[in-house]
Write a structure and sequence with these properties.
alpha/beta, 6-stranded mixed beta sheet, 5-stranded mixed beta sheet, 5 helices, 11 strands
């Protein structure tokens, strides 16, 4: 018998001062049995960091949603799709392989990776030369200690505030806040 995903609900209030985007979002996250709370929260951070693309890229005419992630390796962790069905943003978290990333670059307008694990530096040194060609690829590093701190915000039912100012995401709830400052690698 297969173990089922655990369902998390997130109410996310976004105040993205850098991009003048202010909105409330309600998300359902299905955490795959092999996914950690850390990875799930990084998916939520990726969503918050890129929510402004709903307005900036799709002018409000699109869907920002969680993909199948670990359940389907051909699906992104987060995606933005416009109403024509075109994939505008394909977002992966973790340390994906080069071939699926290059394939995603041919499908989406922008492909974005958020590496967060303590071994991300080793992954990047081994893969960066294979990823230089695509012009629509971005690779970001979330410090491992920051990703670990996000676990403290994980609850089955979350009410989170996300404020983005001067490139720093402040994600928090009534119990605390985690500052997420990403470093761009590519």
């Amino acid at each position: 018998m297969a173990i089922k995903s655990t369902v998390f609900k997130a109410q996310l209030q976004i105040a993205d001062i850098d991009h003048a985007y202010y909105a409330d979002h309600a998300f359902t996250l299905a955490r795959h049995p092999s996914e950690t709370d850390e990875r799930m929260m990084v998916r939520l951070v990726a969503m918050a960091l890129n929510a402004h693309q709903l307005q900036d890229t799709c002018h409000g005419d699109g869907h920002l949603l969680f993909g199948a992630g670990l359940s389907d390796p051909n699906e992104p962790d987060v995606l933005l799709r416009d109403f024509t069905g075109r994939t505008r943003w394909w977002i992966e978290v973790g340390q994906p392989q080069d071939k699926p990333l290059l394939k995603a670059c041919g499908v989406a307008d922008v492909v974005c990776v958020y590496a967060f694990h303590h071994a991300a530096d080793v992954w990047w040194r081994g893969i960066k030369n294979a990823l230089i060609k695509p012009r629509n690829l971005q690779v970001w590093r979330i410090p491992a200690d920051t990703a670990q701190a996000l676990v403290g915000l994980a609850e089955r039912s979350m009410a989170l505030q996300a404020t983005l100012q001067e490139g720093v995401l402040m994600l928090g709830n009534a119990r605390g806040t985690v500052n997420v400052e990403c470093e761009r690698w590519l």
